[in-house]
């Protein structure tokens, strides 16, 4: 694999997508490619990856499950395969999460795109794992909850679903979009002081799907009915799309 040291690798001016693969089929591929295209346009990179190229790689690599990573810079187009790190035990137990030390900069345009400027996320995720946690959640400069290092976050109260608004400083994830499209969700500002008011909490990303949260900071969430219901519906929808 030849890699050219362009601005993507020297300064982080590149884009990537991580796509779940089931039974040899990329899940929500069109949505991933659409977001990739918007990020490349934002970075003024004249590159693209087509649906046909993705399927050619999946077939040639013998990729039947796990994940596919697409990485694009001004002079590079990389296709990489990796394992899906989330297990059924994770869902059964629920994630233990705490708040990140670093604040998310909601004023930066880079926050809203999936770029190679991913250092804050990687370092905070490593810190969480070293502390025996599964994930860390960022607050923005106003002290509001915005997103996890690799996930979006949702809360439930009396059956109503809430999530931070995009302007809080978050990357609008593919699975976040799925939940907003298929459920009635209220986008609003949420602070750590309000956590005790919620019955449930769950995280989303393309590989984990819907992940219940057992604890965020010092607040425990003992209910998970909404998360389980959405997870089951999502799995059924994905299977229909793959047929």
Number of domains: 2
Shape call: globular
Corresponding CATH superfamily of the largest domain: D-amino Acid Aminotransferase, subunit A, domain 2
CATH class of the largest domain: Alpha Beta
Sheet of most strands: 9 strands, mixed
The CATH topology of the largest domain comes to: D-amino Acid Aminotransferase, Chain A, domain 2
In what range is the share of β-strand residues? 25-35%
Q: Care to describe what's here?
A:
- With 243 residues, the protein is of the alpha+beta class.
- The chain folds into 2 domains: 7-82, D-amino Acid Aminotransferase, Chain A, domain 1 (2-Layer Sandwich), CATH 3.30.470; 88-242, D-amino Acid Aminotransferase, Chain A, domain 2 (Alpha-Beta Barrel).
- The chain has 7 helices and 13 strands.
- The strands form 2 sheets. Strands 5, 6, 7, 8, 9, 10, 11, 12 and 13 form a 9-stranded mixed β-sheet that branches. A 4-stranded antiparallel β-sheet has the order 2-1-3-4.
- The radius of gyration is 18 Å and the shape is globular.
- The two termini are 33 Å apart.
